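Input record (Table S2, row 720):
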Amino acid sequence: MILADLATGEKAVIVRVHGHGSFRKRLIEMGFIQGKEVRVVLNAPLRDPIEYEIIGYKVSLRREEARQIEVVTEEEAREALVHDEHLQALPGDLEEEQRLAKALAHVAEERHHNIRVALVGNPNCGKTSLFNMASGSHEHVGNYSGVTVDAKEGRFNWKGRKLVFVDLPGTYSLSAFSPEERFVRENLVENVPDVVINVVDASNLERNLYLTTQVKDMNLKVVMALNMFDELKKRGDRIDTKWLGKILGMPVCPTVCRTGEGVPELLDTVLEVADGVSLGEPVSVDKIITSEDPGEIEKRYQFIHDTLSKTYVRHIEPVGEKSWTEKIDSVVTNKWAAFPIFILLLYIIFQATFTLGEYPMNWIDWLVAKFGGFIGDFMKEGWLKDVLVDGVIAGVGSVLVFLPNILILYCFLSIMEDTGYMARAAFIMDKLMHRIGLHGKSFIPMVMGFGCNVPAIMATRAIESRKSRLITIAIIPFMSCAGRLPIFVLLAGAFFPRHSALALLAIYFIGVLLAIFSAMILSHFVKDDDLPFVMELPPYRVPTGKAVWRHTWEKGKQYLEKMATTILIGSVVIWCLGYFPRSNRDVEYQQEHSYIGQIGKAISPALEPLGFNWKMDISLLSGVVAKELVVSTLGVMYSGESTDDPDNTQLQGALASSVSLPAAVAFMLFILLYFPCIATFVAIKNETGKWWWAIAVCAYTMVVAWVCAFIGFHITALLI
Ligand code: GDP
Ligand code: MG
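Output record (guanosine-5'-diphosphate complex):
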């Protein structure tokens, strides 16, 4: 709470005085020191100044000044009495008033000792590296802008004080144009951090200092972490940090946040600044920039230019000498080579993900089956055994099986990201993606969708533009995931035995076309956020093994945590629907008369125009949990038992003889396009933050699926 917000008559204890220089000194001289009690004598709305009573005498402050004083109110202290362990241990015979006084002092003391530090800086300047280094956290660091999307908090002790670090999203300015800018600005205004660490990328001072001047204008205590100092030194540049600090009115600490060099000195400086020991006096920033007049931009840059010309000596590269980044870029973004290289990389990644991933996948499959068998041997026959083995264990297995794929995919992606290649990929794809209303960064998630829609949707986080992000999320389900492949292999083999590869290709192609088409339509409906296309190409960097591993594992964990529960519950529910009510007849009869069979029959009128029979309807229902289940459900319904038909030849025969070609085409199209799967549904909800968005996407896919299947049915019928 701040002093200015107290009502007449309220009492509070001072935590600390913000602001700096003579203003702060004056307040302290007047008695506004940590631990002292203040009471509001008169605070009428709109009335300035406000009258306070402190250490026995009355003073009045302007509201503006009272805003700089942080306090603990009696109400806050009362709350602490309930929740704080330390305060609960107070002797029981204390009077209420004494208890409250003790609580006030305790909370004020504790808050005084906690120093809240906000990290502010351009994207990709090393904020998260610093955050992790200082707090020992494991947040994701990437050589790609837009990796941190919301504020992360980390606490740790430094020299007996508690520091609370907040890692904010990267911004280029605080002008409140983009959501990030607004978010950071509001965070600074509302939460008033005790100290701001302005992380500055030393290899790009002009642009980074723009934000610095804006932070300085917000009248906060600022320390500059002049990061990537190693790169600056390597280039042979020189900078006078002392003088720079003098001109900007803030301590400047050179750091290399990747290795932790300079971070202890930075933290020491933060403590000094928080306690008001080391105060930078703003010398010229305030004088130069005062208003929001139209020429302000130019003025800031003029100021920065002047400052740098006094403090910074750039090493002039000998003519003709190119940096490593330039050399690599001349190949990687070359007019002719860019796309072949990109496609080759994608090919390698896909091959590795699915061929390499197959081995651990089979092991997991085998282990799960063994485990199920093992449990099955021990338990008595009955529904409990069935639910455990066929529902729970098989359900968990179907989640675990994809873990190797996800880990391998993410390992590659994080290498691509950390080296800086990802930004190039987005860069070369931007023109094509822009035509359909998307951003270059949308491409990677879309391609990943061929593997699994879930991590693909999670990967859209890197897209800053809300509009591009939402549209990308909405169209990813049309990218045919690996889970759908076995169904297409089965059906293509049954109905297009001589052209099955072509049929597969056509299916993938139709999916992509519909994704593009949908993006074009949706871009007319989703509100534009008018973000200009700004994308930086960071210098290439050698990724650290630790960062790659951490990122890969984080994603794997996320997948398990978020998906396991939903898929588990979903598959048990679907399993139960197929298992009850119980009959003693064969499996096929059971399926037909179970709840799922009844639901299948109930929805069959809606699917009848597409030529589907009720067996196909039921398999579609089971595909709602995971598309992989469609094949096994069809297997159960067409051949009674699926066990003696390992390569599905019997099933293919049965399908070919009972399903017409137009219906088969419609079925493939429907599977390609309809409701993605529960895990994807949950991923959409998590990433957009809204249920209705997930529901809308699913409703849209259903409509598209039905219409396309209908068209496919009739065109095929016409052709044969
Ligand atoms: P953020 O976007 O500001 O959170 O930046 P990150 O912490 O994600 O870092 C961006 C990239 O810069 C990563 O590849 C880091 O490994 C790298 N990086 C961070 N600090 C330094 C540093 O001091 N020197 C060098 N050479 N690289 C750094
Ligand atoms: Mg970050």
